[in-house]
Design a protein that fits this description.
76% helix; disordered N terminus; single chain; mainly alpha; Serine Threonine Protein Phosphatase 5, Tetratricopeptide repeat; 36 helices
């Protein structure tokens, strides 16, 4: 008690003293110091981002300068051919001059060590800013910053990164500009020359590409330049001939890769004899290159010499250390439905290359096609722990088990499938459950997987709704889709699934809202346009709009049977029987189903074409002998057509028309 009384005055007396304030602040300072040390890296990153953001405005000036400098060059790259001679003359400066400029830049850049250090310090922040912009999906900002760095520093690593961004943005003019700047500074840089050759071909500047290829071959006469054409083979004969002329102008015509490039273009132009001659020249220098061997086989096949091509491939495969040549032969055999021959060859190949995963996989799925399920299992089980083929192996093992009536094993294997095959595996699995009257297990599985696979939730909701509909519970299926749309209101696939379940008469307002929403999301989707047209036809209203939507859908999918079927249905309701017959005839030719065939026959009968009606009826009876729906067509075949039949047929369209 006394102590309490004694201490109180002392504390009060020291309340505002400097010593007390210092004593109170010290623990706080120590606490912040410890926190700062503990999170120093975090502060460094946050500080760097803040500094980069603060410096963004300063870097804008650099970017604007880069844009100003690039505009005339980019315009030059995309200008018409009238300016091409001037461009080529500017590009064909002697290599000695380019080297001199590079040496001069090196002298200026290496004036002293402090200058180099300053340049390295100056380049760090713009690179950081560019990468930060890229992380925010601001590709244009990032690319513009890198272009400024290319102009200012012209260093290979910076140039290659800038090129990578330009190619990702599919900005060929700017990519070509970067490659030109790079080669101008470093005329003997092989990656730069390969980039320039590839990009000049993509930009159809064939004279520049020929000059660049010639430079590559001067530096390395044996350079493998075949990949330069990857993904940019010209489609038209004129463009191929223009490229051929450019490649033929290159001095080093005896380079095997160049010979093969020219041969490939000649083969596309049906110049097989000349192409074969060039491939043979290439093979004399490199007799074991698989791509050369395969190209010669392709030339034989194109010349209708299949047996010669097969003998050539079989002979050359004996001298190969890789299975590429054999694989091409197997793929050709499978393409031509020679499964037994392909399988025998695959067995020999697996013995030769027992650890080759692609061979094991191909042998496995080919064995399934041949109904050799045990052999398929032996091959595919070796891939169940493969990083590349694990999901494919489990999927096809499940298919094999299902075909072999091993139900529980198939279910287990389908459940193990993930990745790109996940949706089709779950569809097969639910079909398997339904086939064996286990719909409750299927619904439970899909409900659980919406939690374990949230990225697949939309697909899983749709699949579960289909199961509920198949067991006659459409109302619960609609409730499930409503739940899904609350989470993803703009998911077009979910809305479309809902449209397929809604009744065109009872749910007219909901259908209108859903269909308008679909066209708002994807106004040019042929599927959604067709759905709207068919719904209006079912409701027998706004037939002009329905026809316009069906015709618009045909523009985007001109050979789709369901859309032609809808157009025929709408035209029939409009009493335009000529268009109805024409559209339904095309639909029936593309998809000769019972439903489309019946509608086609009815339209023929209404138009009075009884002979064609009878022919279609006989075809349908042959294809579907037990279909009771065909009795309706027999009822139509009466001597006199009553005025009420047209209305009855219109109702029958609504009853029997089915769209996927």
């Amino acid at each position: 008690m006394t102590q309490n009384v004694d201490f109180m005055p002392d504390n009060l007396a020291q309340k505002d003293s400097p010593q007390k304030r210092k004593a109170q602040k010290k623990p706080v300072q120590n606490r912040w110091l410890r926190f700062a040390k503990k999170h120093s890296i975090t502060f460094l990153i946050l500080g760097s981002i803040a500094y980069a953001s603060y410096s963004w405005a300063d870097n804008k000036s650099i970017k604007n300068i880069a844009k100003t400098n690039q505009e005339p060059i980019l315009q030059q790259l995309v200008s018409n051919h009238s300016n091409s001679d001037q461009r080529i003359a500017q590009e064909e400066q002697p290599a000695e001059q380019m080297k001199a400029r590079g040496q001069a830049n090196s002298v200026v850049g290496s004036g002293n060590l402090n200058t180099n250090n300053a340049n390295e310090d100056n380049i760090f922040l713009p690179v950081f800013v560019a990468e930060f912009a890229l992380s925010q999906d601001q590709i244009e900002e990032s690319l513009t910053t890198y272009l400024a760095l290319v102009d200012e520093y012209n260093q290979p690593m910076i140039n290659e990164r800038a090129l990578d961004l330009a190619l990702k943005a599919n900005d060929i003019p700017r990519a070509l500009y970067i490659a030109k700047v790079w080669v101008d500074r470093y005329p003997d840089d092989t990656p730069a020359l390969f980039y320039l050759a590839h990009l000049s071909l993509r930009a159809k500047q064939y004279e520049l590409s020929a000059k660049t290829l010639d430079r590559i071959l001067q530096l390395d006469p044996n350079a493998n330049i075949e990949g330069i054409l990857a993904g940019i083979y010209p489609e038209s004969a004129e463009a191929r001939q223009e490229m051929l002329n450019a490649l033929n102008s290159v001095d080093k015509k005896q380079n095997p890769s160049l010979l093969v490039m020219i041969a490939g273009l000649e083969a596309e132009n049906q110049q097989f004899e000349s192409a074969l001659h060039k491939v043979n020249l290439a093979l004399k220098q490199r007799p074991r290159v698989p791509s050369f061997i395969i190209l010669k086989a392709k030339l034989y096949l194109a010349s209708n010499q299949e047996s010669r091509a097969m003998r050539w491939l079989s002979w050359k495969s004996f001298f190969q250390d890789t299975p590429d040549v054999d694989l091409y032969q197997v793929q050709h055999l499978l393409k031509n439905n020679q499964t037994d021959k392909a399988l025998r060859k695959l067995r020999r190949m697996v013995r030769k290359y027992p650890d080759h995963e692609q061979l094991l996989f191909l042998a496995g799925i080919t064995s399934i096609d041949a109904k050799q399920y045990q052999n398929a299992g032996n091959y595919l089980k070796q891939l169940q722990n493969s990083a590349q083929y694990q999901d494919q192996a489990n999927y096809y093992l499940a298919v094999s088990a299902e075909r072999n009536q091993e139900l529980e094993l198939a279910i287990k294997l389908y459940k193990a499938v993930d990745g790109n095959l996940y949706p089709v595996a779950r569809k097969n699995l639910t079909s398997l459950y339904l086939k064996h009257n286990r719909s409750t297990e299927a619904i439970q599985l899909l409900t659980q997987e919406r939690v374990s696979h949230p990225s697949q939730s939309s697909f899983l909701y749709q699949l579960q709704a289909q199961i509920l509909q198949s067991v006659g519970n459409s109302s619960q299926a609609l409730m499930l889709l409503d739940e899904a749309l609350q989470q993803n209101p703009n998911d077009a696939e979910l809305i479309y699934s809902q449209v397929l379940l809604l009744d065109p008469f009872k749910d007219r307002d909901r259908l209108d809202f859903a269909l308008n929403k679909l066209l708002e999301i994807e106004p040019n989707s042929p599927t959604f346009l067709n759905a709207y047209a068919y719904t209006l036809a079912q409701q027998n209203r706004k037939l002009d709009l329905a026809r316009r939507y069906a015709e618009q859908a045909l523009v985007y999918a001109p050979q789709q049977a369901s859309i032609l079927d809808t157009l025929g249905y709408v035209a029939y309701l409009q009493n335009d029987y000529d268009v109805a017959v024409q559209a339904l005839a095309q639909a029936y030719q593309l998809a000769p189903s019972l439903g489309i065939g019946m509608r086609y026959a009815k339209a023929l009968y209404i138009r009075g074409d009884v002979d064609r009606f009878n022919q279609v009826y006989r075809d349908l009876k042959t294809a579907h002998p037990d279909a009771i729906e065909l009795d309706q067509l027999l009822e139509l075949n009466v001597p006199n057509l009553s005025p009420n039949i047209s209305l009855d047929l219109s109702k029958s369209f609504t009853t029997h028309l089915h769209h996927s």
